[in-house]
């Protein structure tokens, strides 16, 4: 039986989820995966059973692998920006109308 994941390992896994979710070019997919990561980790923050923690950790590692592959595929395609996406400011400031 493997050891229970430490808090540091779980935080590292969460950061990897967020990093890979942010790499999606499509706004809707990006926001969906960021939201799902936050909700999923938050729902399980009070789990203390070591067997359940091991299961959740292994499932999350598997899901991270899928997310990484999908984010790489997403980067192969470009999408037009949506109205709801923030614009990247090229000059460091923007002018109000």
Helical run tally? 3
Q: How many β-strand runs?
A: 0
Overall number of domains: 1
Please report the distance between the alpha carbons of the first and last residues. Answer: 62 Å
Judged by helices, strands and strand pairing, the structural class is mainly alpha
Question: What assembly state would you assign to the polypeptide chains in this entry?
Answer: single chain
List the helices and strands in order: HHH
Strand content: under 5%
- Average pLDDT works out at 86
Note the main sheet.
none
How would you describe this protein?
Helix content is 59%, strand content 0%. It has helices spanning 7-21, 27-43, 50-74. Helix 1 packs antiparallel against helix 2 (27-43) and helix 1 packs parallel to helix 3. The termini are far apart. One of its GO terms (molecular function) is cysteine desulfurase activity. One of its GO terms (cellular component) is mitochondrial matrix. This is Complex 1 LYR protein domain-containing protein.
Q: Mind sketching the topology for me?
A:
Blueprint: H1 7-21, H2 27-43, H3 50-74
Short summary:
Helices cover 59% and strands 0% of the residues.
Q: Any descriptors?
A:
single chain, 97 residues, mainly alpha, disordered C terminus
